[in-house]
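Researcher: Please translate sequence to structure tokens.
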Amino acid sequence: MLNKKILMISLCLLAGCKSPQSADNQDSSAIQVDNASNPIKVTCNTPRMVQDIWKLEPMLTEKGLIKADMNRDEKEKIIRSYIAKKNEQYQKCNQGK
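Model: Translation complete:
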């Protein structure tokens, strides 16, 4: 009796697993058609104007770009370099459009 119940449950589960797969295949083909007709547009985020460059120091320290033993001039050079690189990335992104 117990074996029959287990067998019936197993068959129901297996039958249920096959149905959604065919539906998924139909959905994925529809998604592919939509992606082909509507290409993804790349957006370039405008870098924010930095009011206080020293607010970037903790983030750059966490990334390992600024070390604790650096003096103030070395830290400022790295921070300004970071800002310049972000601005260059934005300009390159806009040129690629």
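Researcher: Any highlights?
Model: Confidence is low (pLDDT under 50) at residues 19-35.
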